[in-house]
Amino acid sequence: MKLMFVSEEDRAEDWRAELAAQMPELEFLVWPDDAPRVDLASIDYTLVWKPPAGALQKLSGLKYIQSLGAGVDGLLVDPTLPTHLAISRMVDRSLIQGMTEYIVYNVIHYHRKMGAYAAQQAAGAWKALRQVDPRTRRIGIMGLGELGRDAAAKLLPLEFNMASWSRTPKDMAGVTSFHGDAGPQGFDAFLGRTDILICLLPLTDATRGIINAANLAKLPKGAVVINCARGGHVVDDDLLAALDSGHLGGACLDVFNTEPLPAGHSYWTHPGVRMTPHTASLTAAHSAAEYVVENIRRVERGEAPLNIVDLEAGY
To answer: Which one from 111, 230, 233, 274 is the annotated catalytic residue?
Structure first.
């Protein structure tokens, strides 16, 4: 069996070591270095993140495609993607845990006004700020999939007022569910009750640009946005305008429309923006290799891999 690793953003050697330990019969190859010396039609599997356009089409013997990330928008932009194959998104304990850590950390940062305290320290000011009861702090998660559910489960014991919004109804104990478009149980109502908005949506045609001027205006004055899904969810100029006007109290961004974020972009220096370089949660080979091996063994037994992407829905 042969597997081709296709990613410029992940450490191939980490994956080589972990997969060799769990599946020594698997030959590990790296694109593009190993491509000239092998018959590309003989590659059985691929482990991939943002492949060059046309690369996967050349691997004509693939049995299924394994994404290195929870999202697959970096795959779906390739017009030559072999859509007849099953594509599995990454679902891994370490990946989920990392995202939850990022979200909980930033929720508490805004809830406890740590940015204001940091500014006071820089100014040499000593002043206690009003502490808010977490039961009155309204957290809203857009997207209640694997990542959203775990984050909500960790925030609930802290007694935050939790709600979620998704395209279709999602039930979770302790989390008020909103779904669909405008209406008493829809998107507008969700935004109107949300002080800290967390975006964990997949990036699709329906969700691209969802954090825009119209929707930001529906949030309460002083609300903050945490986006650790995809940069394409945000209309940058609209977010900056909401910050500049004072309607938005802050934004924490891990993902951007252009990555790396260009030098000179307003986000670098804006006092209302906290940012990280798409590192909210990274797929770790030491944890995720077990999932990859399980999927390969399933396919070898004639079974479907886990967590197959719905190509029509985009996730």
So the answer is: 230
Q: Above 90 in pLDDT, residue 182?
A: no
Domains 2-92+283-300 and 94-275 share a fold: yes
What is the C-alpha separation between 13 and 20, in angstroms, rounded?
A: 10
Task: Give the pLDDT score at 31.
Answer: 97
pLDDT higher than 90, residue 208 = yes
- Cα 260–chain centre separation: 16
Q: Please say if the pLDDT value at position 8 is more than 90.
A: no
Task: Sketch the domain layout of the chain as residue ranges.
Answer: 2-92+283-300, 94-275
Amino acid at 89: R
230 counts as catalytic? yes
CB distance 254 to 230 below 8 Å: no
Burial class (CB in 10 A: 0-12, 13-18, 19+), 306: middle
Eight-state DSSP code of residue 176: E
Q: Looking at the domain 94-275, which fold is it?
A: Rossmann fold (3.40.50)
The tokens for 313 are 């829905």
16, 233, 274, 278: which is the annotated catalytic residue?
Answer: 278
Within its chain, how far is the Cα of 256 from the centroid?
Answer: 12
- Residue 88: count other Cβ atoms within 10 Å of its Cβ: 22
Find out whether the peptide bond into 277 is cis, omega within 30 degrees of 0: no
Q: In the chain, what is the greatest distance between 2 CA atoms, to the nearest angstrom? A: 68
Other beta carbons less than 10 A from residue 168's beta carbon: 8
Residue among 17, 1, 31, 65 at smallest CA distance from 284: 17
Q: How far apart are the C-alpha atoms of 206 and 160, rounded to whole Å?
A: 29
Q: Verify whether residue 278 is a known catalytic residue.
A: yes
Q: What is the pLDDT of residues 28-86, one digit of tens each?
A: 999 999 999 999 999 999 999 999 999 999 999 999 999 999 999 999 999 999 999 99
* Tokens 């990454």, located at residue: 90
Class of domain 2-92+283-300: alpha beta
